[in-house]
Design goal:
Blueprint: H1 14-32, E1 37-38, E2 44-46, H2 47-54, H3 59-63, E3 67-68, H4 71-80, E4 90-92, H5 97-106, E5 117-126, E6 138-147, H6 152-169, E7 176-182, H7 189-202, H8 209-217, H9 228-235, H10 246-261, E8 267-268, E9 280-288, E10 297-303, H11 307-310, E11 318-324, H12 325-334, E12 347-351, H13 357-369, E13 374-376, H14 383-392, E14 397-401, H15 403-407, E15 410-415, E16 421-425, H16 429-437
Parallel strand pairs: 1-5, 7-8, 12-13, 12-14
Antiparallel strand pairs: 2-4, 3-4, 5-6, 6-11, 7-9, 9-10, 10-11, 14-15, 15-16
The structure holds adenosine monophosphate.
Residues 95, 127, 129, 134-136, 139, 141, 297-300, 322-324, 326-327 line the site of adenosine monophosphate.
Length: 438
């Protein structure tokens, strides 16, 4: 029986894999202008990092993580009922923030008084969710984390940078919506959380089972519930922005003023709470307005001023976001934007007969060594089929090499865009290609 990729995972076939490389490169270019540097953290971390870092009550911890165990530890657990020690209890990372913050703390990347550490990552994340369109169990994210500064300029520049990145990728601004909210801090949020819990208790009859459980552990998550009854109840729940402390209100006002100044449009959404407990103050999410169904969030993030302490570091404010590569591809499709052609072919060398193949092979090699993407046929196709192949590869030019041309040390160089043809010396082909690219 043929074995397929596991449920909820996808192969990135060459076009998409090339786009993923380009996507990461674009992210490095855009985020680099804002001072972000790359970091690579392991795909597996101690489970404890996510359980502590994200909070016991969140969905990610309760059901959405893949646990990784060595074969021996699994055997001991199953056969001898001996659970592995904390150090050997590993999870595939469900998100990039906790690992990055762990690395910042472990390597003391923000010593006291230092400038903030601005870090970016790109790679696969794993969540044991029920797969559906736009929701996978392994998916790719690009994300950034800035640790060591709590000023609203950090929040605003990260949001501006995120929107600039989407523009660069080609997602039309008109098809996106930026949602913004403030979640308050450890001073003002607990009282607000109690208010929401009390409000939910009053409306318990109209809430779903999940939200009733949430009311105990993490009532704010009820704002995310898709069930119509809960949505109606939660629409009239107390609004966090009415209960922010003075510092949080000032911070939020400053972020909005900076976004206004930069001409970034946003909608304030008091129901935007994001799933994770660690967020404080600014939270944001970018959604695509059409064609993506319920999985329409293409990125989001927020401030997490308490997370570094939760993973054992000294108090270090932080802010980050992550965006989903596969969702961005869906957003481009939904907006009718063609993915940029990934494969480049500057020259295709076509052979009129087999006798010229050795010289054609040498010409192809010569062009590649000069840095041009160059291809030829390896299957003895007819000249007509070779042109078809050149077309399929999107070749910008085709060099036709026949016995007559070869005798004169020349090739016929055809521009596939204009169909103009010219005889060019075999030694001048690379110079001609350079000229054409200019
Ligand atoms: P989160 O880490 O949940 O804030 O997600 C950040 C972004 O990653 C989302 O806005 C999506 O674009 C993407 N994403 C999250 N979960 C998934 C998933 N299961 N499958 C595909 N993309 C996802």
């Amino acid at each position: 029986m043929a074995i397929n990729a596991p449920e909820g995972t996808r192969d990135l076939l060459p076009d998409e894999a090339l786009f993923w490389s380009r996507f990461k490169q674009m992210a490095a270019e855009v985020f680099g202008c804002y001072g972000y540097l790359p970091i690579e953290t392991p795909l597996i971390e101690q489970t404890e990092l996510f359980v502590r870092g994200i909070g016991e009550a969140t969905d990610v911890v309760s059901k959405e993580m893949f646990t990784a165990l060595s074969g021996e530890n699994l055997r001991r657990w199953v056969e001898e009922g001996q659970p592995p020690k904390a150090k050997s209890r590993l999870s595939l990372r469900p998100e990039g923030t906790a690992g990055t913050v762990r690395a910042v703390v472990q390597h003391d990347l923000v010593p006291q008084g230092a400038a903030p550490a601005k870090l970016m990552y790109a790679g696969p994340m794993f969540r044991a969710e029920r797969p559906q369109k736009g929701r996978q169990r392994q998916f790719n994210q690009v994300g950034v984390e800035c640790l060591g500064a709590e000023e609203p300029t950090i929040d605003a520049e990260a949001i501006i940078m995120l929107m600039r990145f989407y523009e660069k990728v080609g997602i039309p601004t008109r098809s996106m919506r930026l949602l913004l909210n403030s979640m308050g801090c450890e001073r003002c949020r607990p009282a607000y959380r109690d208010l929401v819990r009390a409000y939910m208790d009053e409306h318990a009859d109209d809430l779903c089972e999940t939200c009733l459980t949430r009311a105990e552990l993490n009532p704010l998550r009820a704002f995310d519930c898709k069930s119509p009854g809960c949505a109606t109840v939660m629409a009239d729940a107390p609004k966090i922005t009415d209960y922010l402390c003075d510092e949080c209100r000032e911070h939020y006002t400053a972020v909005k003023a900076l976004l206004d100044g930069a001409g970034i449009g946003y909608e304030e959404d008091q129901a935007l709470v994001r799933g994770l407990d660690y967020y404080t103050r600014t939270v944001f999410e970018v959604q695509v307005t059409d064609g993506m169904g319920s999985q329409n969030a293409i990125g989001g993030g927020g401030r997490y001023d308490k997370l570094a302490e939760e993973v054992g570091g000294r108090p270090t404010p932080g802010l980050g976001f992550a965006l989903g590569f596969e969702r961005c591809v869906l957003a481009l499709e939904a907006a009718g934007v063609e993915m940029p052609r990934a494969q480049r072919c500057d020259l295709f060398v076509a052979c009129v007969d087999d006798a010229v193949r050795p010289r054609a092979f040498a010409l192809v090699q010569q062009c590649r060594d000069a840095g041009y993407a160059c291809e030829m046929d390896h299957q003895h196709r007819s000249l007509k089929s070779q042109f078809k192949l050149a077309d399929k590869l999107g070749a910008a030019r085709v060099a036709v090499l026949g016995p007559d041309e070869l005798a004169r040390g020349q090739v016929t160089l055809r521009d596939m865009g204009t169909h103009a043809e010219a005889l060019v010396g075999l030694d001048e082909v690379t110079a001609e290609l350079g000229q054409a690219l200019l």
